Amino acid sequence: MYRERIDAYIDSKKDEMLSDLALLVRINSQKGAASDGKPFGEGPAAALAEGEALMKKYGLITKNYDNYVVTGDFSEAEKGLDVLAHLDVVPVTEDWKVTQPFEPKIVDGKIYGRGTADDKGPAIAALYALRAIKELGIPMKRSVRLILGSDEECGSSDLAYYYNIEKEAPYSFTPDADFPVINIEKGRLEGSFHAELADGLKLPGIVSAKSGDKANVVPQRARFVVAGLEKSVILEAAEQLNRETGVSFAVEEASAQETVGCPEGASVYAVDVRGQAAHASTPQEGKNALTAMLRLISRLPLAESEGQKVLAALDSLFPYEDVCGKALGIYREDAESGALTLSFSILDYTAEKMSGTFDARLPIGCTEENTKVPVTEKLAACGIVMEDVPMVKPHCVPGDSAFVKTLLGSYERYTGVKGEPLSTGGGTYVHNLERGVAYGCASPEVDNHMHGDDEFMVIDALTMSAKIFADAIIKICNKLD
User: Are 145 and 74 in contact (CB under 8 A)?
Assistant: First the structure.
């Protein structure tokens, strides 16, 4: 029986698997400035090149789609399955403790480094599943294509480019979420807004405030500059808020650059805010530095101004303790897909203008009429203009389909645990694919620190995932119509 052969093969290749993963992790594949032939910058292009080299090394038929994605086909037979993973990563901080983000390190059965869990590790698990099937000579009636992308974290324009050229396979899965299988993905509203502030800085007042750089990450850091207040006043409010939230605040003299535009002789302090990062789909797992910053600002004795009114409105509409949109009036919950979640992720404020972005994950039943429209109206009432961005609808593949049941069967065979289809607030590569689901590699009970410091993958989970993928691929490509 092939299962025992696959198990033994993958176990024998564990060291090679970790070595190949380390090659990918060492590449800083955060999105960079586009250049000729490199639409997402040097790092993502380098990661794609390494990924293609590994696929070619293990016998797959590769193709590079203009450095948007690279693919590896198992054979030239008719395609039955797409497996989609990504090699780009989210930004990093300087707060890693176990190792540096792009210096992979193995400690206590875990491999640490940016991308080990999201999504370079899962990509390697999928590759080794195909390598095992190929090198063991297990028959496959239809082919499978491994698709490695480079822009998943910033909008998936890589896949949009690819699917303008190629058709999706009859079935698709991405190893970029949790086992046992995720058949429902919430919709998404990435809302951007802005306001013009005509009356400028009034003392005491906020000179600038900034936090976040990715909509899909709960911001860990924030910083604002305030003029015209005594340091003791700021510290007292900060210490109280620290006791309430656990978010830390450090007050220091503002830099010369930060004081530009302030009246001569005014006291000017910068407040550095440090919370805890999390994925925007699970904001309750983080400590949002941005909304904590707004809460602190709201407690300071500041002069009335257009800017202060806007900041107070943002604190009211996106309060620190509200991660499900109740203050915005859009809270909704569905039995299958769960509750709406909300993360205020990006803010850039000066005394002349403000811009911001929030990330809402939407359960089944959310529409533009009951979600986007009320948000737009509430912001408008505060003098804030919401940009007209499209809302991504929720995605669902029936849990009783043969495809989902097959994936659950492979999971159950290896884990001995009864599997049920799940819902997620995270959007993955398969959100717009008719028969696409998320399948591994993480498990809900393990916090891999995805999008946070000291991201890791449990090594046994990585090898187990490769075995599960191989089992599922063989069944899908030999049995499903």
Answer: yes
